[in-house]
Structure formats: structure tokens, C-alpha cells
Design brief:
With about 500 residues, the protein is an alpha/beta fold. The protein is built from 15 helices and 27 strands. Strand 25 and strand 26 form a beta hairpin. It is globular, with a radius of gyration of 23 Å. InterPro entries: AMP-bd_C (IPR025110), AMP-bd_C_sf (IPR045851), AMP-binding_CS (IPR020845), AMP-dep_synth/lig_dom (IPR000873), ANL_N_sf (IPR042099), ATP-dep_AMP-bd_enzyme (IPR050237), MenE (IPR010192).
């Protein structure tokens, strides 16, 4: 049987459109032919090092062509790619390496201070591959380019089925140790199918990837769908609003995925309007609720804006909201994708009536097969064929889903349930507020009080009285924050998610 894994995509693309540009990274451009042959060389070189089906290959790399080459090389071998967040502290990187037990670890030379102490430890890593080493610079580790050059261009002979795991993506771990979500070739393929059913990714697509590729959103929302379609991926190694605008103009970028914080920073560029962004056909946001002001900015300029909801465990896409629906469906994450089933249930896993809040369950071919070496957590998450997300949601009469909050973040004040996301959406409408988060804090009278933690725009100040007056009439009185803390910036983990446990402690 011919291989059905995602590594086959490049093989077919070389046959169908070999001279078309696949990846642009800095001054380098790789056609589908040159990319597939580099990937084959890397795959065969890894095979020569002893990498076998099911082995883990960890990468600690910034955005660049290398992480995508490892993605497809591992896929062709039947090995499992383990992207590691380079923003993690050394001890956190050590934890993932010890948990995943990779046979190879590829790292960029800029992360040598994190990797060097690991090399003398008993963590299962047999081969250390160093990326970015200039010619002539001595290193005890394998040089990446030399490794690639030493491999054969022949297609690896493997029959890879869709149910084989190809990537282990670690969750961000806001409440505990991160877990490795096991994603199969089929998960990623069906995620592409779901995406193409709702977002107009074309064969002539030129998408720009600047969100970090160690996250499932950056990897699978537009990057892999664009490569599947035979389009071009422009890879930026770091987020800088001015560089991003210049790249869109220079490369005639047609689509762009960013997280909300990036969209906000982009729109705050002083001379934003002077850049020629007419090539943009659509934009996508994900990772957190996107302020309506951002969505409306692009919609008013004729650029369709899609907001996605998903998670690592679902590869990631679950729902997509069309920007045209955003004003009348404020706060919605849209409707489920074609091959995604959802339920909203109570604590006994019984479906709740339309409009009522319950836990969101997800089912479909893009849902992970489990967590690496976590049988108990896997059983808890995957019950009766459904992924229990831990998110609280409701559905309206038109089928639009609204994420209310994480179950653990819900505030109970005076016997009333308050969902922080609902309050945060109102706070983001305040003209002085740049960032906002809402948590519950202990209250002798009410059980919990609603606390707002905000970062204000430059040169602004904000009092609790001002905030409460702004919320009056927009929120029920018990939902209006009783406590306000103004900070320089919200605390976030290495994945960029707000650390509400820190905010609760004050």
C-alpha cells in the first residue's frame, strides 16, 4: 500500500508543481522540488543515524525552514516530531526532554546555553544536531547542513498509515506540567480538510507565518493547509510589526494568521496605512478572543476576517467565525467545522437545553489519540468517544457556539455564576484598556469577588470608579468588578497564555 502520511504531500507536490516556490525564509527560496529533495536527504540521514518508526525527534528551533523540513522528514520515516517551545525556561525544556525521551534533539546555536547542560544527562538523546553554525565554527555536535548534504535524495520506502502518530505537541500547562498530545497523520490531514471547507486557501496562496511554529495554531491553521494546496509559505523568524508589514508588501502576502496580541500590536503601528496591503485576501485570528475592533477594521477594508477556536488536542481547529457575523454574534467562536461534532453537557454528561451553559465536548477525525505516557489523563479527556475540553460553552438557536470560560475559571459570587470571558469582552471595549483579565478572589461576604486586572494604553490611567461606571448597563451588577489592579502587562506563560493563577494571588 502506498504511504498515506503527510510526507507524501511534498512528493506529490514535486510531481504536480515542482518549480513553484514552497517556502520563503529570509533570502532563501525553496521550490517544491528543492524542498522535497532536502526533506528526503534529511529523512535518509536521520535513518542512517538509527531513527526508526515511532522514535521521537525533538526540535528547539526558531521559525525557519528547518522546523518544516523536520516535520516532513519525520513524517516520511514514521518518526514523531516533538517541537519544543524555545521560550521555556531551561528546567521546563529539561522536563519535556526527559518526558519525551527523543533519540535526536535538533537545536539552534542561540539555544546552546539551554541545551549544553542536557548533553551530559541520561535522557535518551543519542544525537545532538546543531542548526545555524557558521562554516568553519567548531562544534562537537552534528551540523545540520552537513547532515542534510550527506543524505540520499531517494524517497524513503515507508508505508505510513493515517493512524500513525507523526507529532507530539506539548500543551502549554497553565495549571500543571505540560502533556504531550499525540497527533496522527490523519489528524493533521483532516484538519486541513476542515480548514479548506471554511477558509479559502488557494493554490496561489502566499501565507505569512510569524506565530511560533512550536504551537499547533501556527503549524496547522494556515501553514500546512497552504503547503497541502501547493501555495507558498513566507516564514518570519520573529514578530516585529514593521518587519511584518514590510514582508506583506514585499512578498504580496495573501493571507495571515496571528494571535490577538499580535493583531493589536500591528494596528498600533503609527503609519500603518502607508503600507500597501492590497494583496491580503483574508486574515485569521486564534489562540484567544479577538477584540471586535480588530475584526471590524479589516472587514471594513474588504479583507474577510476569520476567528478560529481550537486546541492542541484537536489539531487545532474546532470552530470558525466569519468576520461578517462578528458584530451580530459578539463573543461567538462560530460554528463547528464540517468534520467536527460538538455537544454541550452537564456534569453527568447529559446534553443541556439550547442556550444553557455546559462543558463542550468534541468528536471527529482531527481529535488526538491521547497523551504521551499519561493513561489516566487520556481516560479522563477521551470518554465514550468524546474529548472533554474543560471549556464551558453555550449554543444559540442558529448553531453559533459561545465559549463562556474554562470550568476552573468560573467565579461564583453570591450564588451567581460569573464567566470571566464575558466580563473581559466588555473591558476590552473601554478606550483606555490595552489588556484585560478577570479572576475571582476570596470574599468573606460573597464567597468570591470579581477582580479586574488591566494594562492601560500609554499615557492613560484608570480608577475603579471609572471602570465600574463604564460597565454599568453593559453587565449585571454582580458581574461588575469590585476590585481593580492596574499592571504594566499581564503575566503570561511561554505559550503567551495569561496566567490567571498568578493574578488570583495578586
Amino acid at each position: 500500500m502506498a504511504s498515506m502520511g503527510i510526507g507524501r504531500w511534498l512528493t506529490r507536490r514535486e510531481e504536480l508543481s515542482g518549480e513553484k516556490v514552497a517556502i520563503v525564509c529570509g533570502d532563501h527560496r525553496w521550490t517544491y522540488r528543492s524542498l522535497n529533495r532536502r526533506v528526503n536527504r534529511l529523512a535518509n540521514a536521520l535513518n542512517d543515524l538509527g531513527v526508526r518508526e515511532g522514535d521521537r525527534v525533538a526540535v528547539l528551533l526558531p521559525n525557519g525552514s528547518e522546523i518544516l523540513e523536520f516535520l516532513f522528514a519525520c513524517a516520511k520515516l514514521g518518526a514523531i516530531l516533538v517541537p519544543i517551545n524555545f521560550r521555556l525556561a531551561p528546567e521546563e525544556v529539561r522536563y519535556i526532554v526527559e518526558d519525551a525521551v527523543p533519540v535526536c534533539l535538533a537545536y539552534h546555536r542561540m539555544f546552546a546555553a539551554t541545551v549544553d547542560p542536557l548533553q551530559g544527562e541520561d535522557n535518551g538523546v543519542r544525537h545532538w544536531i546543531r542548526v545555524g553554525t557558521p562554516a568553519g565554527e567548531a562544534s562537537p555536535d552534528l551540523g545540520y547542513e552537513a547532515l542534510v548534504e550527506g543524505g540520499s535524495e531517494e524517497e524513503p520506502e515507508r508505508d505510513i498509515s493515517l493512524d500513525r502518530v507523526h507529532m507530539m505537541m506539548y500543551t502549554s500547562g497553565t495549571t500543571g506540567k505540560p502533556k504531550g498530545a499525540l497527533l496522527t497523520h490523519g489528524n493533521t490531514t483532516w484538519n486541513v480538510v476542515n480548514t479548506l471547507g471554511r477558509i479559502p486557501v488557494g493554490e496561489d496562496e502566499i501565507t505569512l507565518t510569524v506565530a511560533p511554529l512550536f504551537h499547533i495554531g501556527a503549524m496547522n491553521i494556515l501553514t500546512t493547509p497552504t503547503l497541502y494546496r501547493g501555495g507558498t509559505v513566507v516564514v518570519e523568524d520573529r514578530f516585529d510589526p514593521l518587519r511584518l508589514l514590510e514582508a506583506i508588501e514585499r512578498e504580496r502576502v495573501t493571507s495571515l494568521f496571528l494571535v490577538p496580541a499580535m493583531w493589536l500590536a500591528l494596528l498600533q503601528v503609527a503609519d500603518f496605512e502607508r503600507y500597501d496591503l492590497r494583496s491580503l485576501r483574508f486574515a485569521v485570528s486564534g489562540g484567544a478572543p479577538c477584540p471586535l475592533t480588530v475584526i471590524e477594521f479589516f472587514q471594513e477594508r474588504g479583507v474577510p476576517f476569520f476567528e478560529g477556536f481550537g486546541m492542541t488536542e484537536t489539531s487545532p481547529s474546532v470552530c470558525i467565525l466569519d468576520g461578517a457575523d462578528a458584530p451580530r454574534k459578539r463573543g461567538s467562536v462560530g460554528k463547528p467545522l464540517m468534520h467536527v461534532d460538538v455537544r454541550i453537557v452537564d456534569d453527568a454528561d447529559r446534553d443541556v437545553p439550547m442556550g444553557e451553559v455546559g462543558e463542550l465536548l468534541v468528536r471527529g477525525p482531527s481529535v488526538m489519540v491521547g497523551y504521551w505516557n499519561r493513561p489516566r489523563e487520556t481516560r479522563e479527556a477521551l470518554r465514550d468517544g468524546w474529548l472533554h475540553t474543560g471549556d464551558l460553552a453555550r449554543r444559540d438557536e442558529e448553531g453559533f457556539l459561545y465559549l463562556v470560560d474554562r470550568k476552573k475559571d468560573m467565579i461564583i459570587t453570591g450564588g451567581e455564576n460569573v464567566y470571566p470571558v464575558e466580563v473581559e469582552q466588555v473591558l476590552y471595549r473601554h478606550p483606555k484598556i490595552r489588556e484585560a483579565a478577570v479572576v475571582g478572589i476570596p470574599d468573606d461576604r460573597w464567597g468570591e469577588s470579581v477582580k479586574a486586572v488591566v494594562a492601560v494604553k500609554e499615557g492613560e490611567s484608570l480608577t475603579l470608579e471609572e471602570l465600574r461606571a463604564f460597565c454599568d448597563g453593559k453587565l449585571a451588577r454582580y458581574k461588575i468588578p469590585r476590585v481593580l489592579e492596574v499592571v504594566e502587562a499581564l503575566p503570561r506563560n511561554a505559550a503567551g497564555k495569561v496566567l490567571k493563577t498568578v493574578l488570583r494571588r495578586g
